[in-house]
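INSTRUCTION: Work out how this chain folds

Token vocabulary: learned, describes local backbone geometry

RECORD BEGINS BELOW THIS LINE
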Amino acid sequence: MRVFERILVPVDGSRHSLKAVCLAARLTKIHGAELKVFHVIDESVLHHLARFCEKTREALREDRRRTAQAFLNQMRCEAGAEIVDTSEVIVREGIPHEIILEEASVWNADPIVMGKRGERGVGHILVGSVAERVIEFSEVPVLVVTEHEGEP
């Protein structure tokens, strides 16, 4: 019996989430698990950007999609293309913690592996707000990955 069968990794473009993908890729190799990596475009960020920007909401959405795709491509290179290329990599829109929990439930993930803090800048001292909400409401184990000084 495998310890992990389906590893879900939400990413946001931060170094913490890249570390999470690298760890999940190693776990995938060790356990022969499936890997799903995805990025959530935060609807609330789109809403606020659209209020103060000349671009339309749709143009902002497309910018965010391109940025997410660029990160996912970088992640493939750094985390090991042979693992990540065989996994499912998707971009979804919504409220990040809600989409993460929904995806974990629908896909039957057995752990969620995610970065400690994302790109939001202002955050909680110990754990970022998205990770905090996922930990609080998740029905499956959540492994939170930190970025330590001196690590590759």
Notes: The chain has one domain: 6-145.
